[in-house]
């Protein structure tokens, strides 16, 4: 005869296992909905807000999928792990190309931080990197003098006002095409056409607002026709406040005829150094080749710089 106590203990263990299985499944289902939502930026800008966190969402979803393999249902777990792998593939950086291609340009992208206490380290880093083109954002009244400090090496310059955090600018040692300067005040858009080693080239500095529920969707709607109207190859640097795999960045690339010059990694720490997000980018013409891309140090800013070497067609 089976002891009632044994039956009670066995039943309680079964109940606990069922509760664990249900809890894991509910967490897995919730993480699946959020992870899949990070691909829905084309349907609603909230999807792009989730896309910012896709690397972390993929990690949580994948770990819960592994837990589901132990607790069941296993078919859903396998499907979830496969979905995690497919989603992770969207975040793989493009490879650098070989040495083929035409003349190479070096470009330097930097959000200065409008409260930057000392310009000297940034100026020294730009001079050390010796780029052909410089993209700058958050140029407040206190740090706009960086353009004057760079003027001897970069005589072609164009500044455009943004809103509270300061304007955006492009600077280059390449000669500017007279009358080509473009400015959209408040949007964070400054562009000019220069004569590069392979012919005319638009260089554009962009600073977008934060994603939904902030103003980034409106920025994108304004920006697309402006970029599409630029005739000829385009080179862009900016603080987009958005990750490379988002719908927003895909629309910007499509409108400008560009592709990412690599993924330089997390350029901004979201409230904590353990939460870096990749929101500072260089975009190059689709038929250009990427020789190299690297991060530059923060140098007093809250953004790390990006340095890319690009071979134009």
Low-pLDDT residue intervals, each spanning 5 or more residues: none
From the N-terminal CA to the C-terminal CA, the straight-line distance is 86 Å
- Percentage of residues in helical conformation: 25-40%
Number of strands: 14
**Sheet with the most strands, sense and barrel status:** 6 strands, mixed
The geometry reads as elongated
Mean pLDDT over all positions: 90
- Rg over CA atoms: 24 Å
| Share of residues in strands | 25-35%
Q: What is the helix/strand order? A: HHHHEHEHEEEEEHEHEEEEEE
Q: Number of DSSP helices?
A: 8
Kindly report the spatial arrangement of strands forming the biggest sheet.
Answer: 3-4-2-1-14-13
In quaternary terms, these chains amount to single chain
Tell me what the structure shows.
By secondary structure, the protein is an alpha+beta fold. It has helices at 4-37, 46-51, 54-71, 74-89, 120-129, 146-150, 216-228, 247-256, and strands at 104-111, 133-139, 156-160, 167-172, 182-184, 189-196, 199-207, 234-239, 258-260, 268-269, 276-277, 280-285, 289-296, 305-311. Strands 3-4-2-1-14-13 form a six-stranded mixed β-sheet, covered by helices on one side. Helix 3 packs antiparallel against helix 4 (74-89). The longest helix has 34 residues, at 4-37. The chain is elongated, with a radius of gyration of 24 Å.
């Amino acid at each position: 005869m089976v002891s009632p106590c044994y039956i009670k203990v066995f039943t309680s263990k079964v109940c606990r296992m069922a509760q664990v299985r249900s809890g894991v499944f509910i967490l897995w289902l919730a993480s699946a909905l959020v992870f899949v939502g990070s691909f829905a930026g084309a349907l609603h800008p909230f999807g792009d807000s989730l896309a910012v966190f896709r690397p972390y969402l993929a990690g949580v979803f994948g770990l819960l999928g592994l837990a589901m393999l132990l607790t069941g249902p296993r078919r859903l777990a396998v499907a979830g792990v496969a979905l995690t792998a497919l989603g992770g593939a969207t975040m793989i950086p493009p490879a650098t190309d070989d040495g083929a291609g035409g003349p190479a340009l070096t470009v330097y992208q930097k959000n200065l931080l409008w409260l930057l206490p000392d310009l000297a380290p940034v100026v020294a880093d730009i001079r050390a990197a010796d780029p052909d083109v410089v993209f700058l954002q958050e140029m407040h009244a206190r740090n706009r003098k960086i353009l004057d400090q760079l003027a001897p090496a970069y005589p072609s310059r164009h500044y455009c006002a943004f809103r509270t955090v300061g304007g955006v600018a492009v600077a280059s040692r390449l000669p500017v095409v007279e009358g080509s300067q473009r400015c959209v005040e408040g949007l964070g858009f400054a562009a000019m056409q220069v004569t590069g080693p392979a012919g005319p080239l638009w260089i554009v500095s962009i600073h977008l607002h934060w994603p939904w529920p902030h103003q980034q969707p409106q920025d994108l709607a304004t920006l697309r026709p402006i970029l599409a109207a630029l005739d000829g190859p385009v080179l862009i640097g900016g603080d987009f406040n958005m990750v490379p795999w988002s719908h927003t960045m895909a629309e910007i690339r499509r409108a400008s005829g560009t592709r990412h010059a690599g993924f330089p990694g997390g350029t901004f720490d979201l409230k904590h150094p353990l939460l870096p997000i990749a929101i500072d980018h260089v975009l190059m013409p689709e038929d250009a080749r990427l020789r190299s891309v690297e991060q530059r140090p923060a140098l007093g800013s809250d953004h790390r710089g990006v340095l890319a070497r690009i071979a134009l067609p």
